[in-house]
Amino acid sequence: MTSEDTSFPNVRHLFRRQLISVLADLRLAIVLLLAIALFSISGTVIEQGQSLEFYQSNYPEHPALFGFLSWKVILVLGLDHVYRTWWFLSLLVLFGTSLTACTFTRQFPALKAARRWSYYTEPRQFQKLALSAELETGSLNSLSQLLEKRRYRVFQEGDTLYARKGIAGRIGPIIVHASMLIILAGSIWGAMTGFIAQEMVPSGETFQVKNIIDAGPWAQPQIPKDWSVKVNRFWIDYTPDGAINQFYSDMSVLDNQGQDVDRQTIYVNKPLRYQGVTFYQTDWGIAAVQVQLNNSPIFQLPMAQLDTGGRGRLWGTWVPTKPDLSEGISLLAKDLQGTLLIYDPKGKLISTLRPGMATEVNGVTLRIKDIIGSTGLQIKADPGIPMVYTGFGLLMVGVMMSYVSHSQIWGLQKGDYFYVGGRTNRAQVAFEREVIEILDQLNEPKSPVEVPTVGVQSLSSQNYIN
Q1: How many structural domains comprise the chain?
Q2: What does the alpha-carbon distance between residue 342 and residue 322 come to, in Å, rounded to a whole number?
Q3: What domain range is 84 assigned to?
Q4: Does residue 183 sit in the same domain as residue 203?
Q5: How buried is residue 114: exposed, middle or buried, by Cβ count under 10 Å (0-12/13-18/19+)?
Q6: How many CB atoms within 10 Å of residue 201?
Q7: Which of 186, 222, 205, 188 is nearest to 379 (CA)?
Q8: How far apart are CA 28 and CA 185, in angstroms?
Q9: Residues 236 and 355 in one domain
Q10: Are residues 267 and 400 in the same domain?
Q11: Angle of helix 86-102 versus helix 3-23 axis, rounded to 10
Q12: What's the pLDDT at 407?
């Protein structure tokens, strides 16, 4: 083997060490974290998963928002689905790799060093400590007892002593890093396997989740196929002044045989959850109106939302009053409280009706039977959420553990002198007070032992006799 052949492993080893050193650099981790935060904010500000028409109308090219942010820029960069773009996922993976490198190159060695005890055998070693003292009184046994009362773990060998406490403070950063890795893994898993759907379902209808507006590449198994949902009833509670107070949906989850397996009433901030899929109450509308002409069968006409130019919500439909559809009237409604406006073909208001009422129009009796509302649902599945919640729980535990001080104290009995010193990684003032209290207790003079009078007399008599 030539010298060139042996140099390649050395070069690869050197490159690997340099790469790990770069990945474990705290500055790189901070830059990556700031970049992730910045793009996460953009994903919150810019609406995600909307249609092309939405972005074209809200982010035109002339004038572009901030001079550069137009619908084309948003689509090219993937800002309409930030959390599923390759570059955002790459940032998460790179940040996770940096955390892993830092954990193995810094945190684990620091924990290993903290768990390893070492003794100071020379007085000069105490001079390197930020807090040390040289005493003419004291002993290792008395120091050991004082430290054990303060929950130190004491190791003693011959004339040397080592004590420590707060090892949890060294474990805390490792738990913080592990929790952040769990959060990143949960975010990536949710982005790859989750989906978002929207449905507008009339009251009384059964539906399956089909209107997917955003989904990860591995989301198909999460989309429910062996069960469906029925909207048993949708209704709105109004305030005395006519404003909407809350809207509700009584919903049932049905199996393949159409049997109820779960039933709940949902409203805003109280969703339905079933097998990892969550149904949120987000919108409402008017789906149809049931009418009867003279003694005809009751028929249901769909109602469409009209463009009012931002002056409120309004739904309308056309009702034929002749069999050949040559004449008819328009029905308009603005809410589910039941009042409908009837207009002739010339746009003149003929009458107002509520369900159960009737009126004469174009020679026929028009009776309003009912107004059918529809519930607007946003449907989400994110299998990564349990991992994210677990990560945040561990993160809080790790942060609290990181605030625990790791304190170390050494002792040495050398001739007539007794040396004590210590150091800590945080709460320096509290540690100094603790060490000073220990030194004061070691310096306290021992009270003389009082010999009972009877014993003295007995001893004197014995000496005298002898």
Answers
A1: 4
A2: 16
A3: 3-108
A4: no
A5: middle
A6: 20
A7: 222
A8: 19
A9: yes
A10: no
A11: 100
A12: 92
Nearest to 267 by CA among 248, 292, 243, 250: 248
User: Is the CB of residue 424 less than 8 Å from the CB of residue 223?
Assistant: no
- Total-model pTM: 0.73
Per the listing, tokens 């069960």 go with 227
Contact 183, 392 (CB under 8 A): yes
On the 0-12 / 13-18 / 19+ scale of CB atoms within 10 A, 438 is buried
User: In the prediction, which pLDDT does 446 show?
Assistant: 52
Q: Is 409 helix (H, G, I), strand (E, B) or coil?
A: strand
**Dist. CA 237–CA 244, nearest whole Å:** 6
234 and 203 within one domain:
yes
Contact residues for 384 (Cβ-Cβ < 8 A; gap 6+): 185, 186, 187, 188, 189, 190, 191, 193, 194
Structure tokens at 463: 């000496």
- Residue stretches of the chain with pLDDT short of 50: 3, 447-466
If asked whether residues 95 and 143 sit together in one domain, one would say no
Identity of the amino acid at 193: T
